[in-house]
From TrEMBL:
This is CHK kinase-like domain-containing protein. It comes from the Eukaryota. Signal peptide: none annotated. It comes from Parthenolecanium corni. It holds the Pfam family EcKL. Residues 115-310 form the CHK kinase-like domain.
Length: 396
């Protein structure tokens, strides 16, 4: 039986959030029940209400944390609070610097278990949930400019408020760096080199399965193996910057007129290059990355410096800084980006994630084989590995 929030329960929530309003009537209602892939119920609704004698209509998205599953509540609470911190402490300051919002409007509520956001789809924004329709070059420019603004303003904020930089909800562990660095490099380097030499993904499924299992079992240690000491500056990374979490608004000639980001559950302070690399390798067409990667890097760096200068920041971030930061990230970047290709591939990926969480690892090879039979997937994966090789990420 579904435990999704009922319409009556949601109306009670709305009454608390809009105490001056009455006669609520839900016009449209849909939702996703909280499970292993979501921190709680996600409800989308359009409703009418009366305030000061005037009838109004709103479209909202409610994220509702439920404390019903003791086996997963702590992990879900961590993700939920992380997003709550971003909406409460960072996004409002970011909006002041930019004079615009890169995220949905957050309607404040006294209930700490609920996040209420405007439904941007009702304002003409389109969600990029179909990962087979990857971004072309023209779409990349406005997205990367918005991303550069996000990173530059968050850097400014953490300069002013050092407590935000130390916020424990937005940290990555730095323990076990040297030991794991050697262990991880020794483990994956021969496998990726063989994959590149053969130019054939299906023949290496058994070894890819082995790498995936290693990554899953050592995820936190791999993440902590990143050398943060060499980064030129810190910014707030989205952490999961891909099509599902980017909304675009198009003009009459299909030009991008607006960019918004959603789902800040995985944000953390780090080099902004992680977001850039994750986006270009997971959500951009392979031919664009192969032919125009340097153009995209130059554009992002230019936009980042322009925004830093606009905010009177003397820092200059160069292409050389970019390459150095990419190499500092290489352990986490290669493993995470490569296997995100599998996790984000549109073949019932949620079932696959649930399978991994529940420990049914014997099903992994069958899932991977289904992925690599698809020409688009194989092309993208090999393109990413060749890009990593070109950037020198496979060097000892």
């Amino acid at each position: 039986m579904s435990s999704l929030q009922s319409q009556d329960q949601v109306i009670n929530i709305l009454k608390k959030c809009f105490p001056k309003s009455n006669t609520f009537q839900i016009i449209e209602y849909s939702g996703i029940e909280g499970n292993l892939n979501f921190t709680g119920d996600i409800v989308r609704l359009t409703f009418e209400f009366t305030e000061d004698g005037i009838r109004n209509r709103k479209s909202l998205i409610l994220k509702i944390l439920k404390n019903t599953d003791p086996t997963s509540i702590f992990q879900k609470l961590d993700l939920y609070i992380r997003e709550r911190v971003v909406y409460d402490l960072i996004i409002p300051r970011m909006n002041n610097y930019l004079n615009e919002s890169l995220a949905p409007l957050d309607l404040k509520t006294t209930d700490s278990n609920i996040i209420i956001l405007e439904n941007l789809v009702m304002s003409g924004y389109e969600a990029g949930e179909n990962n087979r329709q990857l971004y072309g070059l023209s779409q990349c420019f406005p997205i990367l400019k918005a991303l550069a603004n996000f990173h530059a303003t968050s850097h400014k904020i953490c300069q002013i408020d050092q407590q935000l930089l130390q916020n424990e909800m937005l940290q990555n562990s730095k323990e076990g760096l040297l030991q794991l660095k050697k262990k991880t490099v020794d483990f994956w380097q021969p496998i990726y080199c063989e994959l590149l030499a053969q130019n054939n993904v299906p023949s290496l499924i058994p070894k890819l399965v082995e790498v995936f299992r290693y990554m899953k079992e050592n995820c936190n240690e791999i993440k902590s193996a990143v050398d943060y000491s060499n980064f030129k500056f810190y910014a707030l990374c989205h952490g999961d910057f891909r099509k599902d979490n980017i909304l675009l608004k198009y003009g009459p000639n299909d030009e991008v007129q607006g960019v918004k980001f959603i789902d800040f559950q995985t944000c953390f302070w780090s080099t902004p290059i992680y977001d850039f690399m994750f986006f270009t390798t997971v959500s951009v067409k392979a031919e664009v990355t192969e032919s125009h990667f340097e153009t995209l890097v130059n554009w992002y760096v230019e936009c980042l410096n322009e925004k830093l200068k606009e905010m009177n920041n003397a820092l200059l971030y160069t292409k050389e800084d970019f390459i150095r930061d990419v190499k500092s990230l290489r352990i986490y970047l290669i493993l995470n980006v490569t296997f995100s290709s599998f996790l984000l591939f549109p073949l019932d990926r949620y079932e696959f994630v649930d399978t991994m969480v529940k420990g049914k690892k014997e099903n992994i090879p069958y899932y991977m084989e289904a992925c690599v039979e698809d020409e688009l997937f194989t092309k993208g994966l090999l393109s990413n590995l060749k890009l990593f090789e070109k950037l020198g990420l496979f060097e000892p």
